[in-house]
Design goal:
The chain is an alpha/beta fold. The chain has a single domain (11-290), classed as TIM Barrel (Alpha-Beta Barrel), CATH 3.20.20. It is built from 17 helices and nine strands. The structure holds coproporphyrinogen III (CP3). Residues 37-42, 56, 85, 87-91, 103, 108-109, 158, 174, 221, 223, 347 line the site of coproporphyrinogen III (CP3).
């Protein structure tokens, strides 16, 4: 994969709030930085206004609209959020690999032609992926967003974890039984590894090019990690996650980028792998809400910054409950002055009350600054 983007990185606005980057790099901070997975999206009325009933992927591909939607939560919660995350989706990698992906309103992602036979996989393996060309729109949206953020907060780039993408590519959408993905790894483990490697190669180039385009911090979403047994996670997820952490910085050097770009891994449900994830080369490990913060802190033993992990469902509670749970979380992670980033344990829901989320963020600032 070659070619270059024409981005004038010298023209990027100076970052005024680098709290997120400092915390992710393990430096001591004055309070824990805050952001929320899926902080842009359907719970915000201004999202629906900007999207104007258009197709989801069309919205992602329109740089102006993607930048607007990315910045909406930062604007609404001015001073309370310490990062933005580019409005896009993990399923743009399968699209770049030649697969059709649609988002069906009210149903979620849908692949009309999922990978069901070895011939289907061979076709994807033989497809030459030109990341710069296929995902050109994503880089343009990142560059525009970075400019429009005016240095207020850093911008996250992201991608899906290889196993999670294999799940979507084989199941053709969300799943309860993971029948096809499990069939792949158990009936055709070798071919599955080849596919995982190909996804990993694309993910590495995609993440590195997102940094060239303007992303300042990266997250890998292995959202279906918890569907694997511990042994299968070690075979079909962890090695690829590690490769991404190892190879992105190398690729960045090749691309002439010497800045230290922190990387986060979020393997939802993979509680058994926390110890290994803390030594997998990522600076930050994001936790779902199944973790007791104090136990996670013990296992981590100051190797990485931990991120998380409020049950998003707490937002449906009273202010008193939100305060109580937020306090327990921040104190459990050691108070938040080192090795901690505030987040939910998974994304926002479309039904959430924007003012409850504001209250949560204000409480994080109050408790985290104490
Ligand atoms: C698994 C996964 C996907 N996409 C993503 C993940 C990993 C995180 C996770 O585990 O939730 C990641 C993602 N998806 C989206 C973002 C944008 C940035 C942000 O977090 O604010 C990010 C980081 C926007 C989106 N991606 C999607 C929407 C909803 C689009 C809409 O209907 O308007 C948004 C805002 C669509 C999507 N995309 C995906 C699903 C399952 C869905 C349907 C979700 C649903 O219906 O709740 C795949």
């Amino acid at each position: 994969m070659s070619g270059t983007q024409s981005v004038d990185r010298e023209s990027f606005p100076v970052l005024k709030n680098d709290l997120m980057l400092r915390a992710a790099r393990g430096e001591a901070v004055e309070r824990p930085p805050c952001w929320i997975m899926r902080q842009a999206g359907r719970y915000l009325p201004e999202y629906h206004e900007a999207k104007a009933g258009r197709d989801f992927f069309e919205t992602c591909r329109d740089a102006e609209v993607a930048a607007e939607i990315t910045i909406q939560p930062v604007r609404r919660y001015r001073g309370l959020l310490d990062a933005a995350i580019i409005f896009s989706d993990i399923l743009v990698i399968p699209q770049a690999m030649g697969m059709k992906v649609e988002l069906i309103e009210g149903k979620g992602p849908h692949f009309p032609e999922p990978l069901r036979t070895p011939e289907d996989v061979e076709k994807v393996l033989n497809y030459k992926v030109d990341v710069l060309k296929e995902l050109d729109w994503a880089f343009k949206a990142i560059t525009l967003t970075r400019m429009q953020l005016q240095g207020e907060v850093p911008l996250f780039g992201f991608c899906g974890g290889p196993w999670t993408l294999l799940v979507y590519m084989s199941e053709g959408g969300g799943s309860r039984l993971f029948r096809f993905a499990k069939q792949w790894i158990n009936e055709y483990p070798e071919l599955s590894h080849k596919l995982l490697q190909k996804i990993t190669d694309v993910a590495i180039e995609f993440l590195a090019q997102q940094v060239v385009a303007g992303a300042q911090i990266l997250q890998v979403f292995e959202s279906w990690g918890g569907e694997l047994s511990s042994a299968d996670f070690d075979e079909f997820s962890l090695p690829y996650l590690k490769q991404i952490a190892e190879k992105v910085p190398k690729r960045l050097l090749e691309l002439g980028i010497t800045e230290n770009v922190p990387m986060t891994v979020f393997a939802k449900g993979s509680w058994y792998a926390l110890d290994k994830l803390c030594s997998s080369g990522y600076q930050t490990v994001s936790l779902d809400w199944s973790w007791d913060p104090e136990e996670a802190v013990k296992i981590n033993n100051n190797r990485v910054t931990l991120q998380g992990n409020l049950d998003p469902g707490a937002i449906y509670g009273t202010n008193e409950i939100i305060t109580k749970k937020t306090e327990k979380m921040i104190k459990g992670f050691g108070g938040g002055k080192k090795n901690y980033i505030v987040n939910f344990g998974h994304g926002t829901h479309p039904f959430m009350d924007t003012e409850k989320i504001r209250f949560f963020l204000e409480e994080c600032h109050r408790i985290g600054s104490a």
